[in-house]
Design a protein that fits this description.
about 230 residues, alpha/beta, four-stranded mixed beta sheet, about 35% helix, globular
């Protein structure tokens, strides 16, 4: 994955080398930018192309962002509903000297002496649960790739504006903590998607064939992430 600065915006992109004679830029529905380049194209030339088409790229990303998952603005007060592993829970805020977040009887109970801290308490709670759940699903998924000889360096959890997950060529998989609000199967889909990228770095036919092999119903869970959690 490469980067170029366009104005105040950082544009991430990857490069696919082919025998074609010209550079081509693709913006996919997940807002990722892919550049198809001749085998002998130099990186400075490629970055210059990205900058020249920067306005068009941002326009395409803005269009696709309309269809990316989003969560309505929260006020973090009693009566709101919040997701956890695909289920809705009623938020109940309780003034208490002890700070805690618990799931009980279909409610998400937050105790705190300062109601303005509810958002940060919930964020920490989600993050800790995400670490455990993501690691568990990842550990169960890796054996499916034993014959492929994938190299996983580590799992990171980082909030991302337009992505559920990403991976680097050296084996670092990053997952969005917001995924903990989705069903376990959705989390599994994103993890399998990124593991497949450790074998096939782009989204060509070989990649989708591999993903289909590892999770035949992946489209169902992808659609759930894109539509039902809006």
């Amino acid at each position: 994955m490469y980067q170029v600065k366009y104005g105040s915006t950082i544009i991430d992109f990857d490069i696919k080398r082919t025998k074609r004679k010209t550079l081509a830029i693709e913006v996919h529905p997940d807002s990722t930018v892919h550049l198809v380049a001749p085998e002998n194209a130099q990186l400075p030339e490629i970055k210059e192309k990205i900058i020249k088409r920067g306005r068009w790229i941002l326009k395409q990303q803005y269009y696709f962002e309309q269809f990316l998952p989003h969560t309505p603005a929260r006020e973090y007060i009693s009566g709101e509903t919040h997701y956890y592993l695909g289920k809705r829970y009623l938020l109940k805020v309780k003034r208490d000297n002890n700070k805690s977040v618990k799931l009980k009887g279909g409610q998400l109970l937050v105790s705190t002496p300062d109601p303005s801290k509810v958002k940060s308490l919930l964020a920490s709670w989600y993050y800790e649960h995400a670490k455990r759940k993501f690691k568990s699903i990842l550990n169960n998924a890796i054996p499916r790739f034993n014959k492929k000889g994938i190299r996983l360096e580590r799992l990171d959890i980082k909030r991302m504006k337009n992505r559920w997950g990403s991976c680097t060529p050296n084996g670092v998989i990053t997952l969005n903590p917001e995924l903990i609000k989705a069903p376990s199967k959705c989390i599994e889909y994103v993890i399998l998607h990124e593991l497949c990228h450790l074998i096939v770095p782009n989204h060509k036919k070989e990649f989708y064939n591999l993903l289909e092999q590892k999770m035949p119903n992946w489209k169902k869970w992808k659609n759930h992430l894109e539509m039902e959690l809006k």
